[in-house]
Amino acid sequence: MTNITDFYQTLLAQTKALISDESDIIANMANISALLFEHLEEVNWAGFYRVINEELVLGPFQGKVACIRIPFAKGVCGTCAATGLVQRISDVHQFDGHIACDASSNAEIVLPVKVDGCIIAVLDIDSTAFNRFDEHDEIGLTAIVEAFAQHHSNT
């Protein structure tokens, strides 16, 4: 894997070890959320929103109480789900239509989880620090999401 930092190489290896013998997608989402929440600095929320009936529904997460349902194309998570593109937002307060589940969040990264070409969920990570997420985070988290999606396309 080119351009992935040692930190994310370690998280990727830990992710693969956590999910390798488990076929339940919810259990794996829960452990990945906990792993990321524990190891990422300046993160106040990490978790998944699952695609159910054309909207995002709260899945396993670590952090404060969260929004339960998010329509496609609404907020950062909905934009990610609607476009299929990673959303790396330096200042969520400047994002048109941002949904503030936690007013202390200032930056966010959301990655689509695609299994067999379909978006089944998004991984959402929030931070209290502005400009928290950079291209190294995007590359590393994309590798983790892809490993998770690949595992579940095979199970």
TrEMBL record:
GAF domain: residues covered: 50-150
Entry superkingdom: Bacteria
Protein name: GAF domain-containing protein
InterPro entries attached to this UniProt entry: GAF (IPR003018), Phosphatase_reg/MetRdx (IPR051330)
Lineage of source species: Bacteria, Pseudomonadati, Pseudomonadota, Gammaproteobacteria, Alteromonadales
